[in-house]
Amino acid sequence: MIRASLLCLLAALPLQALPADTLPDLGDVSQATLSPAQERGIGFSIMRQIRQSPTFLDDPEVSDYLNQLGYRLVAVSPDTRQDFLFFPLQDNSVNAFALPGGYVGVHSGLLLTAQSESELAAVMAHEVAHVTQRHIARMVAAQEKQGMISLAAVALAILAARSNPQAAAGAIAASQAQALSNQLAFSRDNERDADRVGVQILERAGFDTHSMPVFLDRLQRSTRSLETGAPTYMRTHPITYERIADVQGRIYDLPYRQVPDSLEFHLVRAKLRAMQREPREAVAYFDELVSERKFANETAARYGLITALLRAREFARAAREIKLLPQAADSHPMLALLHGRILAGSGKTQPAIDWYRKQLIAFPNQRALVYALAQTLLDAKRPADANAVIDARLQRDPDDGRLYEMQAIAYSALGQNMMKHRSLAESYVAQGNIRLAMEQLQLALKNNNGDFYEVSGIEARLSQLRTLTAKQE
Ligand SMILES: [Zn+2]
Fold first, then answer.
1. Boundary residue ending a domain (227, 251, 275)
2. 103 plus 243 within the same structural domain
3. How much distance in Å is there from the Cα of 450 to the middle of ligand 1?
4. For the segment 219-263, what is each residue's pLDDT rounded down to a tens digit?
């Protein structure tokens, strides 16, 4: 049981070939525990690999939903100082895992298997608890007694552990991999502690705590069913009768709560289903769901159908279907985006642009609408207008890598090569790739346009990044 619960993170991501010399030197584990900065450093370098993985789901709506739900849990956790980042992975197995530094991955399989939002929240609360209880920091620090292992090696082992032992052995010396996988395991006490704190978090956040043992029990029962993908979760979070009984004991006195699922929960699930299969199959799936009224939420079922129709490029039918939604398209940001995509896909470019601008007044925090507006302007060959939208948003969120990528396209269309390279540099910084960022800044200086302020801004940024990498060496 202890071996198998290796960091709860044996997600089925392919292991990227990772030469040890590309890892930042994070120092060695000579302290009693990891500093939050060291933990964040390990997590960040693992995330850089995950972002390049084909299963990484770069969808702003799914990801924003997970972070909203996640932060609702974090806000009532025992330690609210820790930063978190929740991210989705397109993977049918039922799994969630915490990395050092507050990074929490959630598989699409878990989102689709959970039968209520409380069940999803229960699994996420368990992961949040692993982080706030500093199980990872303590576990890594405990290795000090076993001998000095650099944190870079730990990052590598964590990454390897998500894949298979052979891959781990290929990435680092087999003996070292073996030693690390023995040491990087949560204890039975850690698991129990994560359940205990997880129940507390779930209760305080207003979810139904009884969903936790219900979900664990259902997963355990379905282990033999191949379709559910339960084995992955079982491998990483062993569910024993003892664990279920322990959780049941903790919630014995807590009242049952009828907690209605949010509309986002249903919409995000419908979106994942609509993206999963071939577009034609997805349309057929939702057509059946809608015509036979086999849905928990009509808006979400119709939303799924329209999303599938957009993938199949059936814009005329999508335009008819959106009128059948039980609620107006401007009543929810995800429906608003859907309506804008129909307009843009039908060639109604100006109405789409006007629609997005209007919706952004109603939903100013919805970055998916910002991306859609900027992209529609770029497609309409209006790079200067796209840039104005992007600049305004970057004032609020200067770390948004996707905005910098679109900005680079806009600058390229405007023939401003120096600024294009500067934007690409910032998109690399957002991904954590400082070396490529510095290359782009050097390219920017080679395309010097003579503007004194812009050039000195690039030089200053370059020396800032140089200092940053020097510190890591
Ligand atoms: Zn766990």
1. 251
2. yes
3. 56
4. 777 655 544 444 455 555 667 778 888 899 998 888 888 899 999
- Which pLDDT score, from 0 to 100, does residue 294 have? 93
11: confidence class by pLDDT, cuts 50, 70, 90: very low
Domain that includes residue 121, residue range:
3-251
- Centre of ligand 1 to C-alpha 141, Å, is 18
- Give me the catalytic one of 195, 321, 400, 426: 195
Residues 243 and 385 both lie in one domain: no
* Tally of domains in the chain: 2
What is the whole-number distance in angstroms between the Cα of residue 5 and the centre of ligand 1?
7
| 3-state class percentages of the chain: helix first, strand second, coil last, to nearest 5 | 65, 5, 30
pLDDT in tens, 357-378: 999 999 999 999 999 999 999 9
127 classed as catalytic: yes
195 counts as catalytic: yes
Identify the CATH number of the domain in which residue 393 sits.
Answer: 1.25.40
- Entry pTM: 0.86
How far apart CA 412 and CA 114 sit, in angstroms, is 44
Q: Ligand 1 centre and the CA of 250: distance in Å?
A: 17
The mean pLDDT of 2-9, rounded to a whole number, is 31
Is 358 part of any domain? no
